Amino acid sequence: MACCVGRPHRFAFLLLFYLTVLDIVESNPFKYLSHVSLSIQPGSDADVKSYLSQVTTELKKENEVLRVKFQHVNSSLESEMSKLKSQLELKDLEVSELREGLRNEAAVNSEKYFRELAAEKEKLLKFQSDMNSKAEEDKKNLETSHREVS
Q1: For the chain, how many structural domains are there in total?
Q2: According to the model, what pLDDT value does residue 3 have?
Q3: Residue 1 falls within a domain, yes or no?
Q4: DSSP string, 58-86
Q5: CA dist 138 → 82, 127, 134, 144 (Å)
Q6: Alpha carbons 134 and 119: distance in angstroms, whole number
Q7: Which among 25, 72, 110, 150 is least buried, having the fewest CB atoms inside 10 angstroms?
Q8: What sections of the chain are H helices per DSSP?
Q9: Is residue 53 part of a domain?
Q10: Burial label, 12 (beta-carbon count in 10 A; 0-12, 13-18, 19+)
Q11: How far is CA 21 from the centre of its chain?
């Protein structure tokens, strides 16, 4: 198996099965330089099982730690969420009460202003009627005084 990286130098991955060695070799026109050599030793059945058992045990421990952390975070988030829900419900109730209060106040003020407007309208109509009566009376008085003078 070989792979080239860059043009001036060529690197090759050499996997020698009979020696179980992986070499990364740089080749140029003058020589071959081995930069990394990885020797792979065959493992016994007991060594492989021991290693896999150790990895499995570590993964189970890590999984348990993560599960406990998840449960803790989940419970804290649920308690925070329930607290926020109760606060939201209280704020909704306050908003509803404020809206109802504003509606009632608006209705009371509207009714009050309509009554005041009606009273002012009646005063204005009475004043207008009085002024018309006075104007008619003054007109009659002027006509009578004008007839007496003439």
Answers
A1: 1
A2: 43
A3: yes
A4: HHHHHHHHHHHHHHHHHHHHHHHHHHHHH
A5: 82, 16, 6, 10
A6: 22
A7: 150
A8: 45-149
A9: no
A10: middle
A11: 56
Backbone angles phi, psi at 44, to 5 degrees: -80, 165
- 62: in domain: no
Evaluate the CA torsion angle 125, 131, 137, 142 in order and state its sign: negative
Region class of 39: left (phi > 0), else alpha (psi between -120 and 50), else beta = beta
Q: For residue 35, what are the domain limits? A: 1-42
- DSSP lists the bridge partners of residue 37 as 23
Looking at the DSSP assignment, which residues form a beta bridge with residue 22? Answer: 15, 38
- Which pLDDT tens digit goes with each residue over 87-127? 999 999 999 999 999 999 999 999 999 999 999 999 999 99
| 8 A C-beta contact, residue 135 and residue 141 | no
Q: Give the mean pLDDT of 46-59.
A: 95
Burial 22-45 (b: 16+ CB within 10 A, else e): ebbbeeeeeeeeeeeeeeeeeeee
Q: Is the pTM of this model over 0.70?
A: no
Residue 32 lies in a domain: yes
